[in-house]
Fold:
Amino acid sequence: MHTPAQILKTKFGYESFRFNQEEIIQTILQKHDAFVLMPTGGGKSLCYQIPALIFDGLTVVISPLIALMKDQVDALRLNGIKAAYMNSSLDNEELSDIYDQLKRQDIKLLYVSPERLLGNNQQFLVFLRSLNISLFAIDEAHCISSWGHDFRPEYRLLSSLKKQFPEVPTIALTATADQLTRDDILNKLQLKKPQIFTSSFNRPNIHYSVEPKRKMYEQIVAYLKKHRDESGIIYVLSRNSADKMADKLKADGFAAKPYHAGLNADKRQKHQEMFIKDQIKIIVATIAFGMGINKSNVRFVIHGDLPKNIESYYQETGRAGRDGLKSEAILFYSGGDVMKLKRFAAVENNPEQTRIMLHKLSQMATLCEANACRRRAILNYFDELAPEQCGNCDVCLTTREKFDATVIAQKALSAVARLESRFGLTYVVDFLRGSKNQKISEYHKSLKTYGIGKDISKEDWFRYFKDLISFDYLKQVGSEYPILTLTEKSRDVLLGKEKIFLVKIADKKEKEAVKAKAKKVTLGDLPYEEKLFSKLKIIRTELARKENVPAYLIFSDATLLELATYLPQTLEEVRKISGFGDIKLARYGKIFLKAILDYSSERKLSSKIHEKVPKR
Ligand code: ADP
Ligand code: ZN
Structure:
């Protein structure tokens, strides 16, 4: 019998386990139940696929979407693992074929939908009882919770699974982070003393940035021009803007298609497939797009409009960089978007729900506006601690020169004090700038503080206020029309006991420089052969076409990048590249090796495989 580590190498071609994969696998092998929270791209699948290969019997995987099942099964088959799926897309002949294989114990992993497993008077369960079931794996387990962002009523059927098969270990997996949903999942699934495994939700390879929403289309085009052969998603708020932007991009020479709930099912399916198979590089979509997208080489996610909360932002940006390579999340922000979304946030006849939605929206807005690490803001939102600086977001990477802003802060705080903490940000700023606006009351116009902030532009004042808020010198209370109030920290500033340093408003040039630095996909800081990388991608596309699977299932970008970095010169060296299990090495090793040998001999390059240190 093989150990998990051996299977990891021989079947999947990977050197070492990630996160707590190994402990999870051990728990399952001891036939305990497990509940796994791991971010997207973390490697949840291996947690049940490896036990499935070690156990004698069949592993049944419950998965919500046909597209996901097919993807997983294709991926397994390419590694020479016997897997199948059963869903409504199969005809009777295909189904009976799978039944036969199951009876012959010729399948190790079977993917099914919850309806197939438990619906229809549980006929299928009766059949399963005649087989030897080793493990149930419930993928996307958050679908069982109506608190989650993707509730699926049919998942509720799974509540009875544990009762029916108390002796079979069950593993439930999800990338959904919030506590409410987690508790609900555990409660609904009735797992038996499950071991709970949580990983950090940090996605270190994603670079987050927020740009002011001005000339957005031009900025997007400039970005796309620099990233011609990369795939990405552009999220927008409405169907109409998705159509429009996709058309415009097409007219400007980019392979883009729209995706939203207004398109008919055929079209949606087709556009999705073109994207997955790299026939188009860009999908312009509403939030309807994404669930079930396993494509690992999504290099960027752009938000043209503001997401309505941090959960959505995290989920959507999380579709970038599943392969672990550097990826970009770029958001275009404007205060106008916040106003627009506020109107959508109102839930009719439900003030409580409305309040929650507005609060979540304002947290999203603060993430964009504050001069604080974006990653930290995301992780803190999910109750996870994080260092002050992540080193991989626009805030952390811009040299932020600070200056003594004590006087500015005093002006701001005294304005709030003079207005008796009863007004919102815009009013306070107008007041400070001595606006002639009629909204400012005559009484306020007569105060000494009125107009003391004339020398600073409205825009800059907003920035300073946001910073003062994020550093707790001021507070916004109320969600619909939040008003500014003082905090415990305000007093010392007003009394001149504390000096305040704020970030200088960065000029544009500086920002551009940051961008240039943050780009380029590499393995750590090692250089790679760009031309070779492109060639290898072409070979991969060709193989994918022949096998009729998406290219990323043949090899991830990470594997090709390793090849183009370490330049293996023999098959034994190719084996050391992450992603080459025995079967893929036998099937595709030679083709890739030949391309590398040709390239290297032309340029007199030699192997750098000794520089590859196994990751731990
Ligand atoms: P998730 O389901 O958690 O989003 P997947 O299971 O799809 O993630 O894994 C994401 C990618 O990482 C896949 O390409 C997978 O093969 C790869 N992967 C998983 N575990 C490892 C590992 N230990 N070493 C290298 N690559 C891994
Ligand atoms: Zn940061």
